[in-house]
Design goal:
About 40% of the residues lie in helices and about 10% in strands. By secondary structure, the chain is an alpha/beta fold. It has helices spanning about 10-15, 20-40, 50-65, 105-115, 155-165, 180-185, 220-230, 275-290, 305-320, 340-350, 350-365, 370-390, 415-420, 430-435, 460-475; strands spanning about 45, 75-80, 115-120, 170-175, 190, 210-215, 260-265, 295, 395-400, 435-445, 450-455. It contains 15 helices and eleven strands. It has an eleven-stranded mixed beta sheet with strand order 1-3-2-4-6-5-10-11-9-7-8, with helices on both faces. It has a domain at about 5-250 and about 460-475: Alpha-Beta Complex (Amidase signature (AS) enzymes). It is globular. Bound molecules: glutamine.
Length: about 500
């Protein structure tokens, strides 16, 4: 087995027992990338030099007795919408092609001070708008389980890299499902924290009231480790949660006994692939057999969450993306006047999905429509938050599939935005509510494609969410890895 296939916990043990160095780990993931990148295109940038230096320094420190904790010396992949000092940050957009930020996002500086080795920046849908990573201006990422299929999105590059071993772990951002849905389609764990637990400082904003950074990992324990390394209050983010990060480890192995599990009626039925529904039903049976209490719950507002999201997210995006004007960052296409320069820059710099979102958002915020669209969506969001809070008086966690389908073929939904948007029907409610949610792989369908189960919890309910996720993981026993052509065994 290659070092590239270790979990973070296993790699940490090898580093500390002297069986492997951080440079060995880095070389293993880079070697893996050299086999897989031509086909998968997980990375937009691999920082050979910077990563090497970080790994050498991690090794020197460990040898000298300085241990920065569980990510010390671990090679990680970061989505290319995190600002990284000295390393390009493009958001997969022509408008930011070649843009090098002068500062690190808080998440990045916390990872660096935890001794992590940043391998590079991963591909995404442009400005994180999409569910397949096909909206990247630099070409799609492919799914390591079947390169004819998408890895999901928008954090498809990080999810595929973690699945295939071109990083031991990674981070993405989730606005409507962009961590959990690709995790599900790539057979890895993906976690979106309670809104505010991870700083958004230095994350290029898509929809600020929804955006959250979170980890992608090979197992639940690694996801927790990655989360702990970056979580906690940050004065540089005004929406950062000022209280303590919940304690999540003590009950991690406590099992499902006594946990009240709400099975969401609205997230099932028509449109859900039979293999997905079956995998979930089987897992629920096993949890119930081991003492979990299953409760059918109905959250009627979930039916409207997708519409609500597609008013709020584009509205916020249209405001956030106003800063890309050809003056301050990246691309500039000249014109006779300043207005013409800005219009040309934006028309050439943004791809079609980003332009669609800006138009939708501008429309729903415009005078005469504001209250009917944006205002109404916000009232609905409040209703959804209340509905979730109420249901949690009766149940500890909610479960659903993470995605109604397994990975679909490249091109299958690119001509039909609505079909693409439906991919996030299960993940969007937790973003609107700001509540934590995780996707755990539970099996493969008849085509050998991964299926994910989503566990949601109330705000700051990470402890019970992780406990249930761990119980699911233990019962699923999912250890399969993609057997990609060209992958050395
Ligand atoms: N797929 C959703 C969208 O296109 C969610 C994206 C995300 O979470 N960043 O908006």
């Amino acid at each position: 087995m290659s070092l590239a296939d270790l979990t973070i916990a296993e790699a940490g043990k090898q580093l500390r027992s002297g069986q492997a160095t951080s440079v060995d780990l880095l070389e293993a993931v880079i070697e893996r990338a050299s086999f897989t990148e031509a086909q998968l295109h997980c990375y937009l940038t691999i920082d050979h030099e910077g990563a090497r230096k970080a790994a050498e320094s991690a090794d020197r420190e460990l040898a000298a007795g300085t241990d920065r904790g569980p990510l010390h010396g671990i090679p990680l992949a970061l989505k290319d919408n995190f600002c990284t000092r000295g390393m390009t940050t493009t958001c997969s957009s022509q408008i930011l092609a070649g843009y090098v930020p002068p500062y690190d996002a808080t998440v990045v500086s916390r990872l660096r001070s935890g001794g992590a080795v940043i391998v590079g920046k991963t591909n995404l849908d442009e400005f994180a708008m999409g569910s397949s990573t096909e909206n990247s201006a630099f070409g799609p990422t492919r799914n390591p389980w079947d390169p004819e299929r998408v890895p999901g999105g928008s954090s498809g590059g990080s999810a595929a890299a973690v699945a295939v071993g071109s990083a031991l772990g990674g981070f993405g951002s989730d606005t409507g499902g962009s961590i959990r849905q690709p995790a599900s389609l790539c057979g890895v764990v993906g976690f979106k924290p309670t809104y505010g637990l991870v700083s958004r400082y230095g994350l290029v904003a898509f929809a600020s009231s929804l955006d959250q950074i979170g980890p992608l990992a090979r197992n639940v324990g690694d996801a927790l480790t990655l989360f702990e390394a970056v979580a906690g209050h940050d004065p540089l983010d005004s929406t950062s949660y000022p209280g303590p990060v919940p304690e999540m480890r003590s009950d991690l192995e406590a099992g499902p006994k006594g946990i009240r599990v709400g099975v969401v009626t609205e997230l099932s039925g028509e449109g859900y692939e039979p293999a997905v529904s079956t995998a979930m039903a089987e897992m629920l049976n096993r949890l119930a057999a081991d003492g979990a209490e299953l409760v059918e719950v109905s959250l009627p507002t979930f039916e409207l969450a997708l519409s609500c999201y597609y008013l709020i997210a584009p509205a916020e995006a249209s405001a956030n993306l106003a800063r890309f004007d050809g003056v301050r960052y990246g691309l500039r296409v000249d014109g006779e006047t300043v207005e013409e320069m800005m219009a040309r820059t934006r028309a050439e710099g943004f791809g079609p999905e980003v332009i669609r979102r800006i138009l939708l958002g501008t429309y729903s915020l415009s005078a005469g429509y504001y209250d009917a669209f944006y205002g109404q969506a916000n009232r609905l969001r409040t209703k959804l938050i209340r509905e979730i809070a109420e249901v949690h008086e009766r149940v500890d966690v909610l479960v659903s599939p993470t995605s109604p389908t397994v990975a679909f073929e490249l091109g299958a939904k690119t001509q039909d935005p609505l079909a693409m948007y439906l991919s996030d029907v299960c993940t969007i409610p937790a973003d609107l509510a700001g509540t934590p949610a995780i996707s755990v792989p539970v099996g493969l369908d008849h085509q050998g494609l991964p299926i994910g189960l989503q566990v949601m919890a109330p705000a700051l309910g990470e402890a019970v969410m992780f406990r249930m996720a761990r119980a699911v993981e233990e019962r699923a026993g999912f250890t399969a890895r993609p057997a990609m052509a060209g992958l050395p065994t």
